Amino acid sequence: MTAATRRLPSRTHKxxxxxxxxxxxxxxxxxxxxxxxxxxxxxxxxxxxxxxRRRIRAILIPLALYCIAGALVGYFVWHARYxxxxxxxxxxxxxxxxxxxxxxxxxQNEHKNWQQRIDLMQSDSVDKDLLEEEASILLDRVDRRDxxxxxxxxxxx
Length: 157
Description:
- By secondary structure, the chain is mainly alpha-helical.
- Helices cover about 65% and strands about 0% of the residues.
- It contains four helices and no strands.
- The longest helix is centred in the middle third of the chain and has 36 residues, at about 85-120.
- The mean pLDDT is about 75.
């Protein structure tokens, strides 16, 4: 082979062979055997499918990323609202704190009352009225000088 007849591999060589192949495919389509050739096995002209895939890819990839980002944001927003440490739990904790604070105040008042009664009993002279009252309550006894009033219980229907 001489240098004039020998082909060197280059870009034009590849595109030239592709062009030749496309021409042969077009020749087969025009003949009577075009029914036997399956379109999925044939080489399509360069560009038509690739552009469609690029367009689809250009739309679907950002759409998928937006969907994933939206799902992540939705997940965190939902847990910020209804999660274990969310706003709903915070409101429930505040209500529970208010309830427990009221209970604490009532118990502190009761403690103060009992402390006053204990202080009266621990002094050098015990308050006799207080001692008598406590004894009568504990023993379910009434002094003969005490006035007892019986009330009628309300009628039950």
